[in-house]
Specification:
The chain has about 280 residues and is an alpha/beta fold. The protein folds into 2 domains: about 120 residues, ATPase, nucleotide binding domain (Nucleotidyltransferase, domain 5, 2-Layer Sandwich); about 140 residues, Nucleotidyltransferase, domain 5 (2-Layer Sandwich). It is about 45% helix and about 20% strand. A hairpin with a 4-residue loop joins β2 and β3. α2 crosses α8 and α3 packs antiparallel against α6. The radius of gyration is 20 Å and the shape is globular. The C terminus is likely disordered.
């Protein structure tokens, strides 16, 4: 059995998955990225190896992705986060044509061609109001941590409108709503609706096509996916359980197996050519 590893070094978290020849995830790990990206990659990798009961030598190919992909010293190759998100989405949902990936510091929408290549994409990485960090900051303003966002918003009766197009102005709105006695759950729901509105605009710019697959850490909140479905008025794909946060790493591991097969074909072709040589 051969294994590949995909390492997604993101701005907030570093994720890793180990995948076997049957294209099954046998282990995964995650750690805070911090400022020493190479060390974060090593920690996450070792966590996954321990979970799988494997050693470094058991992993035949390592593919890194994410904004810190160049800081993984033990990688065999690196790919962009757009490419890895596309292949990770197609791994679970082969007919995916549009991907929405919402992370802590970036939000990106992409449209794929029939072969799974990225045909068009748009990024929102200039303002925190259009990223997952906005939800986390909103929660902190109200005295809640990130893990409490899901349970909090599930108790909302009606979202409070948050219209600020800039994170600074949006945060001012949150403070204003609190001072007027709005329920924290309704404010949190409003922040989520505001973020979804930005994501819908991003998908429209890439000419959204079904099937739509969602990815990124913020999508681990069930309400987020529900609001996106309501706004799009269509069904959307959501990877199983916590795997929604590991789509980039999964895509990188998938590409690792594709790379291994390509190298084998090239090696076999070279061997046959040598046999035929006079």
């Amino acid at each position: 059995m051969r294994y590949t590893a995909g390492l997604d070094v993101g701005s907030t978290y570093t994720k890793v998955v180990i995948m076997d020849d049957d294209m099954q995830v046998v282990a995964h790990g995650m750690t805070n990225t911090g400022f020493k990206l190479d060390q974060a990659a090593q920690r996450a990798f070792e966590t996954a190896l321990d979970e799988a009961g494997l050693s470094r030598e058991d992993v035949a190919y390592v593919v890194s992705t994410g904004y810190g992909r160049f800081q993984v010293p033990f990688r065999d190759v690196n790919v962009t986060d757009l490419t890895s998100a596309a292949w990770g989405s197609r791994h679970f949902f082969p007919n995916t044509q549009t991907v929405l990936d919402i992370g802590g510091q970036t939000m990106k929408a992409m449209r794929l061609d029939q072969e799974g290549r990225v045909k068009s994409f748009r990024l929102n990485d200039k303002c925190a109001a259009g990223t997952g960090a906005f939800l986390e900051k909103t929660a902190r303003y109200m005295g809640f941590n990130t893990q409490e966002i899901g349970p909090l918003v599930s108790t909302s009766k009606e979202p409070v409108a948050i219209s600020g197009v800039c994170a600074v102005f949006a945060e001012s709105e949150v403070i204003n709503h609190l001072s007027h006695g709005s329920a924290p759950a309704d404010i949190m729901y409003g922040a989520m609706v505001s973020l979804v509105g930005r994501s819908i605009q991003l998908m429209k710019r890439v000419q959204i096509q079904p099937e739509v697959t969602l990815a990124g850490g913020i999508l681990r909140f069930e309400m987020m996916a529900r609001v996106i479905r309501e706004h799009l008025n269509m069904e959307v794909n959501l990877p199983p359980a916590e795997m929604v946060q590991f789509i980039g790493a999964i895509g990188a591991a998938v590409l690792g197996h594709r790379r291994l097969r390509k190298l084998e074909r090239e090696g076999a072709a070279g061997a046959h050519a040598t046999e035929r040589a006079p």
